[in-house]
Specification:
Layout: H1 9-17, H2 19-22, H3 54-64, E1 70-75, E2 84-88, E3 99-103, E4 108-111, E5 117-120, H4 136-153, E6 166-169, E7 175-180, E8 188-194, E9 201-208, H5 238-243, E10 247-248, E11 254-258, E12 262-273, E13 276-284, E14 290-293, E15 303-313, E16 322-330, E17 341-350, E18 353-355, H6 358-367, H7 373-392, H8 396-407, H9 410-415, H10 418-421, H11 423-430, H12 436-457, H13 462-490, H14 495-516, H15 526-549, E19 551-552, E20 560-561, H16 564-588, H17 595-605
Helix pairs in contact: 1-14, 7-8, 8-11, 8-12, 12-14, 13-14, 13-16, 13-17, 14-17, 15-16, 15-17
Protein name: VCBS repeat-containing protein
Length: about 600
């Protein structure tokens, strides 16, 4: 499964957020929702879907999304299954501009930045939801309600949550899923593309244990493995787990009340994977049906031994009881008689989901000498008080700075992992909001702290510090210029604050990897450099054409006309990029370790809005 472009780590974050940010574009109230009653019937029928006129689609977009939307051209990228019409709306200063794309074949409307499917113009208005008007959680639930029945109908057995198998949005209405095989297909992963509105399902090449799926490289850790990476099988009943050898710990299993499912039982224990114990925590109803499986959060470099304690405490002050667990571990490859280690895991209760923050678990485990539920609750209250003391002063920026200080643990500097930082979940759980400012600010703050920590460590190595600074300046200038180009090409929008913040954090990850020597290679990656040069040449030609014609996509009669200011800015960008790219290639051609920066620049060059 090969895509035509790559996405950096923040992209995964945006896709998983989906609703709260990319659906909050500044768009007016749809006319179809005014005045009560049912919207008038849609004029486009199944027979003329493929040839629907742009004018008719524009009329429908203005009716069901925003009467101020404007048609701005076509997207015919190779990875899309059909031609997409692009629409954008004007937005007041400081607000996020709405960008949408419409699949001319199916009528499905997707968010123009994330690619998330939102609505279908060709289906009956009363039969499909409009995800644009929903909150993030509601939109994700609506997608799940549409997709899971399709999987079942096509014979794919999956009882878990969609976000556990979600790989990304294709951008034409389809979602990519990676479904684990059934008991008969153990070790196999089925890669699918599903269209929630049309119910179409495409099968892609499956992978087995030991195989590598090239698409799974986007947005993953560049350092060591961290917690939360173990895939837990999704089984429907306790009896299914018992058949797999699940060892239930009756002393650590409790009845509990939840906001989502009411009274349930937390069933605790472990199962064997090879000769290794794996902790398992399930929420089950009175008929032993598994309602929810807590995600894995135990450290990957430790071996689980036993469950020591479980408590139910509100650790983030939202009024919901979170699950606090203390497990016992040992370090592998140590001599017998080694001392056991206690580590904490906190599962934060949300609507029909429990979230775990790897950095939070490490902060608790490393700072509390005697791990008890009471001591963990006390430390959690201290963390919460520090963050919320700023919120009480209505200083969200200071609260985010404090939060970033907790997130930037020594482990993050080693793992260099978006999943470990969990910045988006952290903001929602501790700041209790999700908007463009908070989502971008926290990422920038984490990136800045990583840079400061690295500078301190390199203080005694002036030569290496100088090389790191040289790469940092060059790569940042290039990625910022490429981001500005994409900002202009996409019609703008404050979503780019988040995208740019993510690019900066990815750069800091790459710089740390370079400085720590984790990118060491014996020879220069000539093929990577040649690929970069080829991609740059193609982009450079496109950029010069845009400047010359003063419009994006000159071959399209409806291409966006550029303002004189935009043209002048693009001229400056072209000169700076050409100069910096030449300098970077000269440096990288003599430095085997520069491959981490080549990949970072390639991601920016290949980014598609």
């Amino acid at each position: 499964m090969k895509k035509s472009h790559k996405c950096f780590g923040i992209w995964s974050l945006i896709l998983l957020l989906a609703g709260g940010l990319v659906l909050s574009g500044c768009s007016g109230k749809s006319e179809g929702a005014e005045g009560g009653g049912s919207p008038e019937p849609k004029a486009v029928t199944e027979e003329n879907n493929a040839d629907a006129e742009t004018g008719k689609i524009t009329e429908l977009m203005q009716r069901y999304f925003d009467k101020g939307l404007k048609y701005r051209g076509k997207d015919t990228s190779e990875h899309l299954s059909a031609e997409m019409l692009t629409y954008y709306g004007d937005a007041p200063e400081g607000m996020e501009a709405a960008i949408y794309k419409v699949n001319v074949k199916t009528g499905t409307v997707v968010d123009g930045v994330s690619g998330m499917p939102l609505y279908n113009l060709f289906l009956d208005a009363n039969s499909v939801p409009n995800l644009k008007d929903m909150s993030g959680q509601e939109a994700n639930q609506a997608l799940e309600d549409m997709i899971l029945p399709v999987l079942k109908e096509k014979g794919y057995v999956y009882e878990g949550k969609m976000d556990e198998v979600f790989s990304g949005f294709v951008g034409d209405g389809f979602l990519e899923l990676a479904i684990p095989g059934s008991e008969e297909d153990t070790g196999t992963t089925f890669h699918l593309e599903v269209e929630p509105f049309t119910k179409e399902l495409k099968t892609l090449p499956s992978t087995s244990i030991g195989e590598i799926d090239e698409d799974l490289g986007d947005g993953v850790a560049v350092g060591d493995k961290t917690s939360g990476t173990e895939e837990i099988p999704q089984l429907a009943n306790l009896s299914d787990w018992n058949e797999r050898g699940f060892n239930q710990d009756q002393e650590q299993s409790f009845d509990m009340d939840t906001a989502s499912w009411g009274k349930v039982r937390l069933v605790s224990g472990y199962y064997l994977k090879g000769d290794e114990k794996k902790p398992l925590f399930l929420l089950a109803d009175d008929q032993d049906r598994v309602l929810y499986t807590l995600p894995d959060s135990h450290p990957q470099n430790l071996r689980f031994q036993d469950i020591l304690a479980i408590g139910f405490k509100d650790m983030n002050g939202d009024g919901l009881k979170d699950i606090v667990i203390i497990n016992e571990y040992t370090e592998p490859n140590k001599k017998s008689g080694q001392k056991a280690l206690s580590r904490a895991s906190v599962y934060f209760a949300q609507e029909k989901v429990y979230s775990t923050l790897p950095w939070y678990n490490d902060v608790l485990s490393d700072s509390v000498k005697n791990l008890t539920i009471a001591n963990l609750e006390k430390k959690g209250a201290e963390i919460l008080q520090r963050i919320q003391s700023d919120l009480k002063k209505e200083d969200a920026q200071a609260a985010l700075d404090t939060l970033s200080g907790y997130i930037c643990t020594p482990q993050l500097q080693r793992y260099l992992d978006w999943d470990y930082a969990a910045s988006s979940d952290s903001v929602v759980l501790f700041i209790n909001e999700s908007n463009t400012f908070s989502e971008s600010y926290i990422v920038y703050a984490i990136a800045e702290r990583l840079g400061e920590a690295r500078s301190a460590e390199l203080a005694s190595d002036a030569k290496l510090a100088g090389r790191v600074k040289q790469y940092e300046k060059l790569v940042r200038e290039m990625t910022n210029d490429l981001a500005t180009y994409n900002y202009i090409a996409s019609g703008g929008g404050t979503i780019w604050q988040i995208i740019n913040a993510g690019s900066e954090l990815d750069l800091q990850f790459a710089l740390n990897q370079y400085a720590d020597g984790n990118a060491k290679s014996s020879t220069v990656d000539v093929k990577a450099l040649e690929s970069l040069q080829e991609d740059w040449d193609g982009f450079h030609s496109e950029l010069k054409s845009v400047i010359e014609n003063k419009k994006m996509g000159a071959e399209n009669p409806d291409a966006l006309e550029l303002s004189p200011e935009d043209v002048e800015e693009l001229k400056d960008i072209e000169k700076a990029l050409a100069k910096n790219m030449d300098q970077f290639v000269k440096l990288a051609s003599k430095d085997p370790d520069a491959s981490v920066f080549i990949e970072h620049i390639e991601d920016s060059l290949g980014f598609e809005w």
